[in-house]
Specification:
Order of helices and strands: HEEEEEEEEE
Mean pLDDT: 93
Helix content: under 10%
Number of domains: 1
Distance between the termini: 24 Å
Radius of gyration: 14 Å
Strand order of the largest sheet: 1-2-3-4-5
Structural class: mainly beta
Low-confidence stretches: none
Largest sheet: 5 strands, antiparallel
Length: 115
Amino acid sequence: MHTISAKDYELLGFFEVEPELFEEDVPWIDNDSVYKVNRGDVDLSFAIQPNERDVRIIMSQNGKILYELNTTGVKDVKVLNEKKFELLEIKINEEQSIILSVKPEISIKETIRQS
């Protein structure tokens, strides 16, 4: 089993917030980390356990959940630098990916490739 491509410093740069760690004395790679971002009335919570490749995303507006993803054993998570934008790709499997953006606003897009 391999770990994710994204490094702790890349996620720190992407979200621009310090993560909340589940266990203080456990290295990031083996820990559960939660990154919380707010843009106006939209909140995003992104939780990851890198070694297990588990991801949870919750996007809400004014306290109402608009999107939620809970998945285990994703194929990969990586930060993509696309021209003016920085994106986070959560590759669920070979066909399905979630693309997350937090600047200038929070957005989530799902792509499914037919094989």
